[in-house]
Amino acid sequence: MPETGGRAQPATTKPPGWPDEVALGALPPGEQLIVHARHLGTRIDTRGLAADLVLRDLASAAGLTFAFRYGVAVTFCTSAERIPALDMALLAHVQEPAEQQDIETASVLFTDGGKERVDDDGVIHLADETEPRLLLVATVLAHSVMLSRDEMLVSEVFASSVPLVADLQVNGKARLSIPAVMRMVGGVLAARHRVMGTAQAGERPDLLWDHPDLDRLYTRLEAEYELGERAEVLERKFGALGDFTDVLLDIAQDKRAVRLEVAIIALIAVELLLSIGKVVMG
């Protein structure tokens, strides 16, 4: 099955033998289906999915599921009622399960050769039920879910910086302790690492290299879910986070420098007192 792409950062290197995605189950009959995408965790070990008999049975009951190695599962189904049981089985293959699932849903309507488009109400019209088309839709929704997760992580980091920024603005200095500053640095770096270790939502899926006829459909889907725009905003925020990290490190360095100066002054004072004591005693 074609690869769906990944970030070029070292943290994203695909583990040997891990397929980018695995298809489980089968597409249920019906002219219109629900597409249910959810973020399950940091990674899904896709190597053992096909051999998990319990998972295969649950996937068959739910519909057609694409499990992506970057932690997202996307299911084409008639009803979402069987998805919780499926996700419980998938979690056995998930690294660092998410504390809270980010979910994206859509409706797909098969038009039997009709024009492919996305309605104003978000219904995706597909010309047929071929796997490449379904995989493309699943990939777009998976990237949208990952962007939602990334946007939340970055927003939390910016929210945590508000008290420090206010302190600098009002008092002209940061009253945080060095350990508190370093914890904030750790939070920023952890957020950047998690975000840059997942799917590259701003890049075109590799699937399109093998199926250029799907390029127009992807353009419509990419515009509907604003993948490019959202990815660009995140990149700008990454730059701001990098600058913020530098500021935090400068603050920590300044605090250490002040402590060092105080220690030196204290040592000089002690030395002077000892010298004075010797003179007095002498």
C-alpha termini separation: 91 Å
Largest sheet data: 7 strands, mixed
- Give the helices and strands as they follow along the chain: EEEHEEHEEEEHHHHH
The total of helices stands at 7
How many beta-strand elements? 9
Mean pLDDT: 80
Supply Rg: 26 Å
Strand order of the largest sheet: 1-4-5-2-7-9-8
**Structural class of the secondary elements?**
alpha+beta
Q: What's the structural domain tally?
A: 2
Task: Name the helicity range.
Answer: 40-55%
- Strand fraction equals 15-25%
Give the low-pLDDT segments.
1-13
Shape: elongated
Account of the protein in words:
With 282 residues, the protein is of the alpha+beta class. The chain has two domains: 10-145, no CATH class; 149-281. It has seven helices and nine strands. The strands form two sheets. Strands 1-4-5-2-7-9-8 form a seven-stranded mixed sheet. Helix 4 runs antiparallel to helix 7 (227-281). The longest helix is centred in the last third of the chain and has 55 residues, at 227-281. The chain is elongated and about 100 Å long.
Topology:
Elements: E1 21-25, E2 32-39, E3 41-44, H1 53-62, E4 64-68, E5 72-77, H2 83-90, E6 94-97, E7 103-110, E8 117-118, E9 124-126, H3 131-171, H4 178-196, H5 207-210, H6 215-224, H7 227-281
Parallel strand pairs: 7-9
Antiparallel strand pairs: 1-4, 2-5, 2-7, 3-6, 4-5, 8-9
Helix pairs in contact: 1-2, 3-4, 3-7, 4-7
